[in-house]
Write a structure and sequence with these properties.
- The complex is a heterodimer of chains A (about 300) and B (about 450).
- Chain A is mainly α and about 300 residues long.
- Chain A has a single domain, classed as MetI-like (MetI-like fold), CATH 1.10.3720.10.
- Chain A contains 15 helices and no strands.
- In chain A, helix 14 runs antiparallel to helix 15 (about 265-290).
- The longest helix of chain A has 30 residues, at about 70-100.
- Chain B has two domains: about 5-130 and about 320-385, D-Maltodextrin-Binding Protein, domain 2 (3-Layer(aba) Sandwich), CATH 3.40.190; about 140-210 and about 225-315, Periplasmic binding protein-like II (D-Maltodextrin-Binding Protein, domain 2).
- A five-stranded mixed beta sheet of chain B has the order 2-1-3-15-6. A four-stranded mixed beta sheet of chain B has the order 8-11-7-12, sandwiched between helices.
- In chain B, helix 11 crosses helix 20 (about 395-410).
- The longest helix of chain B is centred in the middle third of the chain and has 16 residues, at about 225-240.
- Chain B is globular, with a radius of gyration of 22 Å.
- Classes of the chains: A mainly alpha (about 300), B alpha/beta (about 450).
- Chain B: InterPro entries: Bact_solute-bd_prot1 (IPR050490), SBP (IPR006059).
- Chain B: Keywords: Signal, Sugar transport, Transport.
- Chain B: It is found in: Periplasm.
- Chain B: It comes from Marinomonas polaris DSM 16579.
Chain lengths: ~300, ~450
Amino acid sequence: MRKKINPWLAGNIPLLVAVALPAALFLSVLVYFAGWAITFSFTDLETIGRKSVNWDWVGLKNYIRLFTRQGFLQSLWVTVIFTFFSAVIGQTIIGFLLAVALRGKRGLLKTTVEVSIMLGWLLPDIVAAFLWSASASQTGLINRVIIEPLGFAPINFMNDYALVVVIIANTWKGSAWSYLLFSAALDAVPKEIIEAAKVDGTTPIQRLWKVVIPMIRPHIATNMLFITIWTFTYFPLIYALTGGGPGNDTNVLAIFLYQTSFDVHRLGYGSAISVAMLLIVGALSIFYLRLLKEPK
Amino acid sequence: MKKPTVLALLPSLALAGSLMPSVAMADVSIMYPEFITALVKPGIEAYEANTGIKVNAVKMPTVGYEQRVAVDLAAGTAPDIVVMDSFMVAELASANYLHPLDAQLKGWDQYKYYIKSLLSVASYDDKVYALPTDTDVRMLWYDKSVMKKAGIALPWSPKSWDDVLAASEKIKAQGVPYSFVLPAGTKRAEATTMQGVYMALLGADTPKDDRNRLRNRKEGKWIGDSPALRRTLELYRQVYVEKQLTPASINYETNVDAFVRTAITKHQVGILASGSWEFSCIWDCNGVNLPSVEERNAVLGWAPWPGMGRADTLKTTNISGGWTIGMAQSAKDKKEAFKLLTTIFDHGNFSEWTVAEHRMGVRTDITESPEYTQDAYLAKATKLAENTTSRDTFPGYNVVTQLIQQATGNILDGMSVDDAITEYKESLIDEFGEDQVIVYK
C-alpha cells in the first residue's frame, strides 16, 4: 500500500522541498565520499609529487596489490583477531555479564562499577593510550605491583604481547557501551515472564539461555553490529599505543590505510584499501541485520 | 580524463580536518613543529612588532607533522609559510605546492651568506623553494656512566660494527634495558631511514657505483637488492632478534622521542644512533632549562658511526639532512609572507638560535662568527660534515624510504633477511617498474 503524505505537508509543496533539501544534501555528501574513494581506487593518485597532479587510471592494479603485496592480508588478519577478541568476545561478554550481575541492584556497588566502566569509555583515546603504555611497559605499573613482587622477572608486555595489550585496552574502553545497551534490554524483559519460568522450575542458566537471551536477541545483534563496525575501523588508541608495532604485530587495517595514504602518500592504493574495508564491514553488517529479523 | 587535484583531495582534507585543529587564515600564517619553536617564535614576534600584522601561527607536535604538511599543501589550505623536513621539498615542489623564492631572494641582502651547496636540499629544477634552518650530522651517542659500568674504555671509538655490537652486549650484561637504540620500523619514519638504515648502509660496501646507497644516482635507478642492503638488515637482525640488545617496542612507544630521551636521562640507554641535534634535544630541543655544556659533556659522549669494518668500506659514515622553511603556492600575500620568512632568518635571531642550540650553521655570517667558531662541540661535529652525503631526494623517495622502513619492521617481526629483501625489491618493482630497479650481486 502506498504511504500517504501528511495532508498538511501535501498542501505546502515549497515547505516539503525546503525540508527535503538538507536530507538530500546530506545523502549526496555521503554518496560523494564513497564515490570519491571508489573512483580514485582505480587511479595512482598520490598526495605529493608529480602523481598528485598527473595521475592515471590503473584499472584493477590497486585491488590486485591487496592480494599480491605485503600488508593488506596481514593487516586484515590482525584486524580480525583484534575485532573478534576485543569486541565480539571481550566487550560483548563483559558488558553482558555486568548487565546481568547488576540487574535490579541498587546502591554503592552498582554506582562504583558503572562509574568505573564509564570512565574508561569517556577517557580520550590518547590519554588511555598513555595510561596503558605506562602500565604495560617493562617498568610499568603491572610489573611493579604484580609481576616483580611475585618474584618474577619484569615482562615488557608492549614488546612481547602487544596485540594482547591492545585487545585488553579496547575491551576495557568499549565494554561500557555493551553494558548500557544490555542493561536497557534486560530492563525491558517483563518480570512476569521470568517469574513464570521460575515457577516452571527452570534453573538460572536455563532462564538466561532459553528465556532472556531469545528475548533480547535483537539487542545482541544491534550491539554486535555497532561494535564490529567501530572496532574494525578503530584507529586512535592502537596508533597511539603501538603505532602498529612492534614490527607489524598490531598493524590493523585502519593503520595500514593511514600509512599507505599519508606516510607513503599513495591515495589511490589507500582508496582501494578503504573500499575493501567498506565491503568487509558491509558484509558483516548484512549478516548482523539478518540476525535482527524475528525468526518465522 | 584528469580532474582538478584540489577537488580530488577534498576528502583527504576533510579527514585531516576531523583529526587535527584547523588553521584559521589571517593576514600571514605559519605552521611549524614544536621542536623549532625557539627559532620561529621570536621571528614571529619581531615581524608582528615591525609590521603590526598579526601572524596566525600553528605549532604542531613533531609526530605526524610531515603528514599534516603534505595534506594541507595538497588541499590548498596550508598556511603561507611552512616549516618542513628537507626531504619533502622536491616532492612538494614537483607538485607545484611550493612557491619558488629565487626572485624575492635576489632582493634580500642576507641571501648571499647561504652556503650554496646546502641550498640544494631545498631546491628543485634549479629553483630554490625553501631556506634551510640548519644542517646536521649523525653519530652514535653514548652514556658515559653506562659505558664505565660495562668496563668500556672512554672515549669510546668503535672501528667496526662488531665493536658496536660487542660494546652493546657488555652494556646489556649490566642490566641496561636499551643497550643499543637503532631506529627501526615505520613509526620512526625518517629517523629509521636516516639515523639507522642509511648510516649503516653507507659503511656496508664500497662506495663505488653507489653500491652503498638506496639509489644509483648515475643510472637514476633504485637498488632493490645488494650486499650492502643485506648486511644492513642483518645488522638490524643482530640488534633486535639475534642478540636482543633492545626491545623492538621502543620504536613504537606512544611518544618515541620523548621515551628515548627520558630513558637516556635515567641511564637506561647505552648507545643511541641519532644526530647532532641531540646535544640539546636530549634535554630540550628549545633550550629550556638546558644543563650547561660541561654538565652535558659529563653525561654523554659521541663517536662517529664506523663502517662495518671491511677493507673496502668507509671507515666512518655520515649523511646530512636538516629542516627548511618555505612558502606555499597558495599564499595570498607573498610579499608579506616573504617578509615573515626573512624576519625569522634575520641574522640576530637566526645566529642566536644556531649557537644556543648547537645547530650546524648554513650561513657564512654565522659559521664564521666568533660565537660559532669557539663552540667546541660544533667545531668537532662540523668535522664529520667534511665527508657527508645527502639522501636520495628524487621523486619517489617518499615511497622508497617507507619501504625500507617497512623492511626493518619485517626484520623486527622475525622475517629473514632474504625474505625482507625479496619483499623490498618486489615492492620497488611494483612501484617504479622493473627497468627502474637494479640489483647488485
